[in-house]
Amino acid sequence: MVRDDRGVRVLLGIIAILLGLNLLVQVSGLTGPRAAIAAGIPDSGEQLQAIVANTAETSKKLDKLIAPLEGGNLAVKVKELPKTE
Question: Are 36 and 47 a contacting pair, CB within 8 Å?
Fold first, then answer.
């Protein structure tokens, strides 16, 4: 039982260290605007406009898919499977 308890403590210690390192990286700003600039959109306003444009495009595509469903122009054909013995 002592061995299992020690293993759990070691794992919890490793997790605590990793969480601390993650916090330091978040606070230092190493993952800030560089990621957006690397994507080609340096301005957060432009990023939001790109998201809106992509959402509008996706909405148009979904409307094209939904139209046949709502219009009743969709037919489902079921083929009878051969019987197996």
Answer: yes
Indicate whether this model's pTM tops 0.85: no
Beta carbons of 14 and 8 less than 8 angstroms apart: no
For residues 32 and 23, what is the distance between their CA atoms, to the nearest angstrom? 13
Mean pLDDT along residues 16-45: 74
- The residue among 77, 73, 76, 54 whose CA lies nearest residue 65 is 73
Q: Where are the domains of the chain?
A: 1-31, 39-74
* C-alpha–C-alpha distance, residues 83 and 73, integer Å: 31
Cβ(31)–Cβ(42) below 8 Å: no
Range among 2-6, 28-32, 45-49, 54-58 with highest mean pLDDT value: 54-58
